[in-house]
Each structure stands twice: as C-alpha cells, then as structure tokens.
Amino acid sequence: xxxxxxxxxxxxMIRDLARQIAKEKVVPARAKYDEEQKFPWDVINxxxxxxxxGVFIDTEYGGCAEGNxxxxxxxxxxxxxxxxxxxxxxxxxxxxxxxxIILSASEEQKQKYLPDIASGKRLAAFGLTEPNAGSDAxxxxxxxxxxxxxxxxxxxxxxxTNGGDAEIYTVFAVTDKTKGxxxxxxxxxxxxxxxxxxxxxxxxxxxxxxxxxxLIFEDCRVPATDMIGKPGTGFMTAMxxxxxxxxxxxxxxxxxxxxxxxxxxDYSRERIQFGxxxxxxxxxxxxxxxxxxxxxxxRALIYATARTIDxxxxxATKFSAMSKCFASDMSVQVCLDAIQIxxxxxxxxxxxxxxxxxxAKITQIYEGTNQIQRDEIASALIKESxxxx
Length: 389
Known about the structure:
Elements: H1 9-36, H2 41-49, H3 69-83, H4 85-104, H5 107-118, E1 124-127, E2 143-147, E3 150-161, E4 168-174, E5 184-190, E6 196-201, E7 212-223, E8 227-228, H6 234-270, E9 272-273, E10 276-277, H7 282-310, H8 317-342, H9 353-361, H10 370-388
Parallel strand pairs: 1-4
Antiparallel strand pairs: 2-3, 3-7, 4-5, 5-8, 6-7, 9-10
C-alpha cells in the first residue's frame, strides 16, 4: 500500500512506467556502470523512447507537463533512483539544465531548445559551479564580454553533471563586474561551439554512472540572442532554478533511501541467524520502522513542495531547502542503517547496498550544501517573524 499524494491518472502512468524501466533496465545495468564509470546511454535511450524527458516540459514544446512539471520530475527521479542514483542523475541533471530555459528564456529560445530535450534527442546540463564558486554562486569568475552582436565567454566550470554527454548547456557568466551578483547573465551554449571544450572527467566516490566534468571556455563566441533573459538577471535565474530543482535532489535522495530500505527489509527476511530470520529481532524491527517513517516523512514534504512550486503563490525557497536538506540527511542515515542490517555482507561490493550509501552522500552536497539549506531556512523564518510584527 502507498499513500495517496493526489497524483492524476497520467502521473500514475508516469510513475509506473519509470518504475518498470528502473526494474527492467536500470537494476541489471547499475553495477556495470558504477564499476566502469561510463555514461549509461542504453538506459538513457530507453528513458527517451518512453517520452519521460518530456514530463517536466509543457505540451506546446513537445512535453506533457501541463503545469505540474516539478511534481512529474520528482516522480520519475524517485523511481529511477530507487534502482540507481547515478543513472537517475542523467534524467534529473537534464531537468536542472533545462529549468533556466523554462523559467527565463524567450519564446523563440523555448521553441528552439525544448522540443529536442522533451524528445530525449539532446540532454541538458547546468553550468554554474566553478573552482572558487560552489555554494557561493555569486562568486563566479567566468566572464562574457560584449563584442558586437556576440559575447565572448572565458572561464572554467567545475563538477558539471552530464558534462560532455549533454549537448545543451545553460551557462552563467559575469557580464558586468561592477555590479556583483547583479552583473551575472545566463547563456545557452551548445556542445561543439568553437572555444567550448570538455575538461577533466572526475573519478567519484558515488553516482559513478553520471558524467561529471569541467567545462572550459576559451574565447568562446556566442550570439547575444543566446542570452537567457536580460543582462544581469543570471543570478536571479539561478536562484529561481534552485527553488524549483531542490525538490528534485530531494526526490533523488528519497529514491535512494526507499530502495535501500526495500533491500534491507527483504534481506532481513532471508538472512537466518540462530535458527530464525534476523527480521524477528526486535532491535532490527525498530530500526526498520524508524527508516520507513523517515522515508515517508521525506516523501510527504517533497511532493507537497513540488505541488506548491507547480501552483505558485510566491517563492518556495524555504520549502525547497527543507525538502532537499531533510531528504538527503535522511537518505544517508537510512543507507547507513541498511548496511548495518546487512551486517558484514553490506560492506561488500557483491551486494548492492554499499553503492546506495555512496550515491546518497552527494545529495547532501550539490545544489547547495545542507549547511547552506539551513541558512536559507533560518533566513526565511527570521524574515517571516519580522513581517508578523
């Protein structure tokens, strides 16, 4: 039995389709791609063929979102992440890279880029982080200098999900150094543009099926028409993107935790010690009960936040931060407990559970560390208190 989150008929179909792909395509491939650290194109092509890349894009651009794109994105991300957080990230990372276009691009830009993303023909990536600008997004140093009808971009982006495999990049650069955060702008840069190259591919602890690379810009010339929004609005676009995308990180963490819990409960019924299943041990029963409560609490927060974003009555910054922070902290703890239930076998790569912990850890770090999320939450609480007085 599952709680009713008010999903409509189409969303239930999306969930069931993503769940089927996770079971039939992701589970058999996850160990291979984790070990080889290769991008899972065969699985991604299956996701594309099932039209799941269109769930967060509106119908007029080839998708099926119909005003509930963030909820849809969370549904698919959760189901895929139950099987593999790394493989799921190719989907979720494309959602992140697409959001600046959805939120801030012109109609002409949306018509140009969104249909290819919705069909899965081309993946997207989000280019903000730099060697000295992680959670401090306003500290970016990549520049874009106006030159006639073009901008010349120079700089390096770091730790970019889908780097090298995506073809459409939403890239943030400083267009006016005198204005601080208000001097940043956002551009669409396509793979293959002269002066744009892919740098170092990272060798990671977890999410190893996801490509994470540098983006290098050396006198990369892009048309001024490829700027998303007006000059100086890039930082606001980035913040609006995070407001919308952080429940997606939460749903990745949620899926990882839910998958780990399922594996742990199944194992506890199969593992015999002292002549009976370890599931009969009350200590483990209480542990699994706590794990399940935490998973369901995170799920409720995430989908309530996603619905709030899809039906906006103001910025959902506080709740987006809560959903990302709570779910990712929960996920790491649930995966640790799942390994404990597996005992010594949980520490061995022969069993999949250790991978869940490795994949879960990054959800506490990217798209703003959980310390930054707590800053966001506290700031909102203090502001709300002042407004009540």
